[in-house]
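Notes from the 1:1 (GR / supervisor)

We went over the backlog. Supervisor wanted to see one worked example end to end before approving the batch request, so GR pasted a single chain during the call. The sequence is below; no edits were made to it. Supervisor asked that the structure be written out right there so they could see what the output format looks like.
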Amino acid sequence: MQRKAKISLILVLLTLGLNGILFPQENPSLYVPTGHYAHVNSIAFADNGEFFVTGSADKTVKLWDYPSMREVRVFFGHTGGVLKVCISADSRYVFSAGADRTIRMWDAYSGKELKVFNGHRDEVNTICLSADGKYLASGSRDTQIKIFSIGSGKEIKSFSDKGDIVNALAFTHDSRYLLSDSMDRILKWNVKSGKVAGIFSRHKAYVWSLDVSHNGKLAVSADASGSIRVWNLSTFRETAAFSGHTNIVTQVSFSADDEYILSSSYDMRAIMWNIRKKEAAGIFAGHIKPLTDCRLSVDGRNVITASYDNAMRIFDAEKGTEKRVLTGYENNVSRVCFSRDGAVFACAYGDNTVRVWSRDEGRLLKVIKGHSSPVTALDFSANGKYFATGAKDDTVKLWDAKTWLEIRTLTDHTSDVTAVCFSPDGSRLFSAGYSGVIRVWDVESGKKIASFGKQNSPALGIAVFPDNKSLVTCSMYRGVIVWDYQTGKAKKTLSDHSLWVNAVAVSENGKWLASGSDDATIAVYDAKTLVKNMVLKGHQDGITSLFFSKDGKTLLSGSDDATMKLWDMARGVEIRSYTGQTEPVNSVAISPDGNFALSGSYHSLVRLWNVSTGRIVYTCMVKNESDFLTWTGDGYYMGTDRAIRNFAWYVKDLETYPLGDYRDTYNKPEVIRKRTSVSGAGTP
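Structure output shown during the call:
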């Protein structure tokens, strides 16, 4: 996209010292691109050629600038994977359909959700827009085709053929008819009457994809055998057939000039077909898993492909050469924890490191290296002397919590270490892993004191009771077991979840034991009697992490539904939901003073929250060993020079500008320090 002329004038005025007045009027937003962390199911280009959107299994829709391929907007609201996206003819609105049975309408420039179209009883596989901009058609696994009024958002027609799942739809140019797949046929529906007006029936396998040419004369269809057929919409006759794919064709579409057809397939290739010459004009390969979609840019210069390998590839349309690969940043944060004084917090990353941050400054203090696989477990000792880590390399390491130097490595585990925790007095360290066996270590000597547990019953979490005699573990096999760790005998097994139990926590006041499961519930027990007291419900997906406040009055939960929730333990009710993330929450923690919460998630993102207001104080991110960026919701930031140059940009009306353009105004570490004071935390 080209920058508007007025921006040049603004930048000149900024250099004259007027930035404090003019910048807020422009009101850009700081955007940190992360890419999709799961595969892209659908791609759509805006007719103005300035951007494209992608819908992903990660439940988000993202908007990308063209031709820079910069990610500039994310739309989140779907509670299931996004299966199809499309854009209005005026390039103003984005539509998305998903596994959550809904269709959503978004403003492309503001990112706001405008409408939700409901009515389907199963996931919505496909959507398309009429050329006159009045109607939205949708097809679903519930076998229904529905027509909605875009203006009112109301369903105006519903019809079905033989109870078959609908995978593909396309309006004719005059908006009077709608094409749909029906097993090995294509049906032409009269939109007004909802009756079949014609049948195209030359396919020998299930039809997967459809498109109508821009001039309204032709339709193209593709099937599960790899066959592609072109039809005359007036005569219902086949005019061309292409065979080159060896597996399911997932997408076919016409080029903007209607001279070519682009197809993608499970055979891991995209092919450009010359309609007039009836031959392949280019083959685009490089993915290592089946393709889900492909699109030709409006200017005809680039082909974009998406695959189950979680990557999008950009090819030169004429030469067939690969130009760029777009992948999500996958350095996930698996665990977070505060130091016992709350001054720093530690985060375990997927690049085998632990990074230590200053809570009050949002500054990266230390990169801890030593493990040869991703770190999966963290804990600080109560006396503040030690820091323990566990990893997928089957080891536990003990570190000096002041110098961050390694003290020793504990090597008795035979599988991934999933959890570590210190005893209340700091003399013992407990570790658990996928083997199901719990190890007890003497902290001072590093010697293993005991081991016990259920073999081949992977332990996913561990917590110690404040009486310093018992501990609790949770397993992927639904069980929560309370142990007498001095004897190694199980005291009681709690079996109140229907799916894997991912997290356990015990309150420091010795009153509560809580467990969280993939069944989206939290079971709460009396920690002394081990009798179930209540079940906390509210999350829409599995519970990944639990953490009690120091006084035991509240419980914080993290979930795959991309939220955290704070629960009142006395009443058993939700106090607050912490929203604003687009990715699952892997780990949560509450600071010792109770004022702040941490969440760790995908894309190496860690967020510091104000517990009372529910607002994000700041977000911090790393992309290599030492470079980091920390930013607030209103665009203030700090970080290393390379991070400031490369990690993010400001976005205004889909235009992008370097952070350095506004460095004097918004590179303000002092603002972040102010926000971490209790009075200023969470300021918007």
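Supervisor's comment: Helices lie at 5-26, 641-646, 663-666, 669-675.
Batch request approved.
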